[in-house]
Write the structure tokens for this entry.
Amino acid sequence: MPLSTKPMHDISLLAKGILAGERSILAKAITLAESTLETDNQQTDLLLKELLPHTGHSMRIAVTGVPGVGKSTFIESFGELLTSQGKKIAVLAIDPSSQKTKGSILGDKTRMEQLSRNPNVFIRPSPSSQALGGVSFHTRETILLCEAAGFDIILIETVGVGQSETYVRSMVDFFLLLLLAGAGDELQGIKKGIMEMADGVVINKADGDNLKPSMQAKADVHNALHMQEASSSGWSPNVLTMSAIENEGLDDVWKMIQDYQSFTSKNGFFNKNRELQKKLWLDESVENQFRQLLSGPDLSKRKEVLLKEVMNNSLLPTEAARKFWKDILLKR
């Protein structure tokens, strides 16, 4: 792993600033958490340990849907509704990273221009950095930092629904799926298994000429949900229609989320789910550490030697893989 020559941060000062709700300190801590440097990772662990007693009080909500479904527009309108009720909102907007350059546009603040000026809202765009599940590798850490800073609602806007768009489900309390009528997205969601993860489904852009198709899509999705196996939470997902642009249906969405929180808190699922999130975080962290180990210079050199043998047909890729791990295990 890369070594850092940067001066170490004062963890106590960072923690104090975050607990005081200082946005610049929070942003600095998130940048620290997103670093790939080993020294920064260690400092992040120390910071989170100090802040841990002040976390866990927020409602964590994932907002997902195909590109163009209106996730950013929904979050802007929904965020304004929540802040009008005295809530403090943190928006974690995940931007897709380029496969070629590994860079991201990080333009969510421009897409949520009005919300970004709201003093009770903190918007943090982060690159996915090739992480699966529509989130970044450090979304969990960022959630805890935002909770410690006093935010009541954490909204996570994922990069979009796809085959691997599932990990976000393991780090939130409520999974909200946005669909569009007439675009086949509702059927696509069912076919790819996204629908079975949803705690609530919203048919967005239900206005104007799209109102009637939206009502039909609502009925179709409702019927599809009834054919699924019952959720482990005991909750039956609702299907709503909404127009983020016209601010229609936003109150119903918020009521649905509140009803879900009340229902799952009473039957014990809410806390069980939070405990499961910790277990899954451990599993993912082990995998991430494993990836970092594989990208180290020593192992990369070993793979290069084996690659030459594979390229000249001296070894099959499967043989090379077995040899790779056998050599590592023997030397350890």
About this structure: Strands lie at 59-64, 89-95, 121-127, 153-157, 174-180, 200-204, 238-241. DSSP finds 13 helices and seven strands in the chain.
